[in-house]
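Comment thread on ticket #2218

A.B. wrote:
> Attaching the input chain for the structure job we discussed in standup.
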Amino acid sequence: MLRSASDHSKKYPAFTPEFVVIAAHRRAHHEILRHTDAPNSRLTSPTLAWLFMQVLMPFATRVITADGAFPPRFSLYTIVQVLASTLIALMIREIRHERLYRTGVPPRALARSRVRSLCLAAVFGASVPVSFLTTSTGAYLCWLTAPLVLTVAQGVQNLAPTRA
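C.D. wrote:
> Ran it. Output below, let me know if you need it in another format.
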């Protein structure tokens, strides 16, 4: 076991940030479901697809930490992130469209979660072509724009009129 741990020691540090990523996705999922009264059957498919993305993340993490052909490896990981974030936004859309949210839930609560998910999907999605055009560092730097994009989007959202 120690020999195997030593042989693969380079790959283990990547799983610490991956835990944080999975935890963030889980938190977002929990956040939207806590606002719902009675999830309908139309939430089942996107929820199961989202769960599949969570299961794929450790595999995608292992791929991104491998050697060779950076853009395809980076793209696989990033596409899993885009899909997971987009699925959260689709769940929120269904909750809002079918009015599955609890009475008293502020209209902006779900809207903020949806904007956050769409912004993260956009940031991750934009990093895919960057990975083919620049170095790996340039592709990863795209991800660092997420807090700025989220801040701007939330500022714009705060200026918009409230809708249910």
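A.B. wrote:
> Thanks. Noting for the ticket: The mean pLDDT is 87.
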